[in-house]
Amino acid sequence: MLQLDRSKVNPILVPDESNWWESKAVFNCSVLNDGKTIHMLYRAIGEYTNYVSRIGYASSNDGLSFTRKKEVALYPEMDYERYGIEDPRLMTIEKETYVTYVVLSNYVKNNPSVSTALAKTDDFSHYKRLGIITILGSDDKDVVLFPKFREGTSSYMMLHRPSTWVGPEYNTEKPSIWIAEGDSITNFKKHSPLVKPEQSWEALKIGVGVPPIRTEKGWLVIYHGVSTEHVYSAGAFLLDIKEPRKILGRTKAPLLAPEEDYEIKGDVNNVVFPTGACILDNELFVYYGAADKVCCVATVELQEILDYLLSDKCSS
Ligand code: BMA
Fold first, then answer.
1. Which residues of the chain, if any, have pLDDT below 50?
2. Mind listing the domains of the chain with CATH numbers?
3. What span, in angstroms and rounded, lies between the C-alpha atoms of 132 and 288?
4. Ligand 1: residues whose CB is within 6 Å?
């Protein structure tokens, strides 16, 4: 059974009491390696009265030691972001940097909703908002986009988790990971369930953690699963490069489950919530929020996880 190796320097980011907007919790961090710098965006909490989240920025040269910017990177500005912006996920699409993030708002009348929005940045200081990209009222989060890979076509692809899309008409009994195609980066159609909860550690719901990583064996996706006891753990699956609706392999047992103190005890106990990854010297660095309190990293040889996903131990 393959396990991710926790870094000895975990947690790599903790709340900064001297900076109010990130003084209580920093977690669910996403990264983007541009070849020179590893950029990170993370969810930050500065008060518990309203529990409104903001997004902070940090950068690193080695993937372990991160330097933070004092100023908040993204904070709720739009009406649809009113109750907070959470869980950023960084992606490169056609050489541009995008970030998806969860928005909480009640702005749809009588329909308290969770949606996911998209923004674009050139410098990690300025963000151009492209608006909500999920279907209103579907309680949709854990949204990641593929880098564009079908040359000569206009189709973009997305993985997402619309929590209200359950029941016979949706062909899934539990909140699942869906795949969708878009003719533009903000307009997705052809939604279908792709990966559904199967094991006990993911029995309640699953959602994508890390944007798909292109490898020679397929798209590698790290995801989270939630058990009926509300324990969050991390798993992985591999999708066909040309036809990502085809699953090539999937972990049966978690790659990482809460064990360390910083994963067991925090603002929400027993949470390992992967949201980012990058490859450094053939090693996959998986970044995750622990117990909704701190940021952590765990690693595995890229080849090892790919071989594992394609082996009998893992076949879906
Ligand atoms: C999810 C999100 C995450 C959080 C996780 C565990 O629904 O809210 O931001 O880390 O729950 O509490």
1. none
2. 5-314 (2.115.10.20)
3. 24
4. 28, 86-87, 232, 268, 271, 273, 289, 292
